[in-house]
Design brief:
The chain has 10 helices and no strands. By secondary structure, it is mainly α. The protein has one domain. α4 crosses α9 and α5 packs antiparallel against α10.
Length: about 260
C-alpha cells in the first residue's frame, strides 16, 4: 500500500482543520447537507456526462490503484533485470526453445508483468522480430490509453468540483437575498452558502487532482517497465550478449 496517498489526504484536511481550530471555529458550522448534495452530486453528474457509465463504475478500482504501491520501482526493476539476464543466458546457451518451460514456470508468477510471458511465448513460437515489436507497441499504447482514462476521471472531477462549489454558493446567496425578512438568520444563511465553495475547492485540491497526479506518475513508471520488457525480448531474440543486455536495461533504472 502507498501510505503517502493516505497520509497526504489526512495531512491536507488535518492542516485545514487545525488552522480552523486555532481561529476557534465551530466545526459544526462546516457541515451542510445541501452543499454536499450540490457539490458532490453535481461533480459526479458532470463527470458521468463526460465519461461512459463503464468508466464511472471503475471508480473504486481507480481509487484502489491510487492507494496501492506502484509497480516499476528501482528495486523491482533490478530484480526483473536479473530474471531477464538469466533468460538471455539460457537462450544463448541452450537456444530460445529452451525458454518454453519458463513460460509455465517462473514467468507465470503474478508478480511478473504478463507482457514478459507473452513476449517469451512469441519468441518460442518463432514470431518475426518486427511483428513482436509491433504487438508490444500496440499493447503499451492500449495500456496507456486505459490508464489515461483513470487519470482523466479524477482530473475532470478536480475541474468540475470548484465550479459546483461556486454554483452552490450562488444558489445559497439567491435564497438569502430572497428572504431578507429575518435579519437574525441572515449571517447563518450566508455562511452556509459559502460552505459549498469550501467543499468544492478543498476536495478538488486535496483529493481529486492529487489522485490524478498519483495515477499519472504510476502510469509513467509502469510504461517504463513495459518498454524495458520490449527492449529485453527483442535483444534476447537477436542473441545479444547478456552482459551488454544488462547494461542496456540498467539505463531504465536511471530513467
Amino acid at each position: 500500500m502507498e501510505l503517502a496517498t493516505i497520509l497526504g489526504i489526512i495531512l491536507g484536511f488535518g492542516g485545514l482543520a487545525t488552522g480552523f481550530a486555532i481561529e476557534k471555529g465551530n466545526f459544526a458550522a462546516l457541515l451542510g447537507i445541501s452543499p454536499m448534495f450540490i457539490v458532490f452530486g453535481g461533480t459526479l453528474g458532470a463527470v458521468m456526462t463526460q465519461y461512459t457509465l463503464k468508466d464511472i463504475l471503475h471508480l473504486p478500482a481507480f481509487l484502489k490503484e491510487a492507494i496501492l504501491k506502484p509497480k516499476g520501482g528501482s528495486s523491482e526493476l533490478k530484480n526483473l533485470i536479473e530474471v531477464i539476464v538469466a533468460l538471455a543466458e539460457k537462450a544463448r546457451r541452450e537456444g530460445i526453445l529452451s525458454l518454453e518451460m519458463d513460460i509455465t514456470g517462473q514467468l507465470s508468477d503474478a508478480k511478473y508483468d504478463p507482457m514478459l510471458k507473452k513476449g517469451v511465448r512469441l519468441m518460442v513460437d518463432g514470431t518475426e522480430p518486427e511483428l513482436i515489436k509491433d504487438m508490444m507497441e500496440n499493447e503499451i499504447y492500449i495500456y496507456e490509453h486505459q490508464k489515461k482514462t483513470a487519470v482523466g476521471v479524477f482530473e475532470a472531477a478536480g475541474g468540475f468540483s470548484p465550479t459546483m462549489g461556486i454554483i452552490g454558493t450562488v444558489m445559497g446567496l439567491i435564497q438569502v437575498l430572497g428572504n431578507m425578512s429575518n435579519p437574525d438568520d441572515l449571517a447563518k444563511s450566508v455562511a452556509l452558502a459559502f460552505i459549498a465553495t469550501l467543499y468544492g475547492v478543498s476536495f478538488a485540491n486535496l483529493v481529486y487532482l492529487p489522485l490524478a497526479g498519483k495515477l499519472k506518475g504510476k502510469m509513467q513508471k509502469e510504461i517504463l517497465q513495459k518498454e524495458l520488457l520490449q527492449a529485453a525480448i527483442l535483444s534476447i531474440q537477436s542473441g545479444e550478449n547478456p552482459r551488454i543486455l544488462r547494461e542496456k536495461l540498467e539505463v531504465f533504472i536511471h530513467e
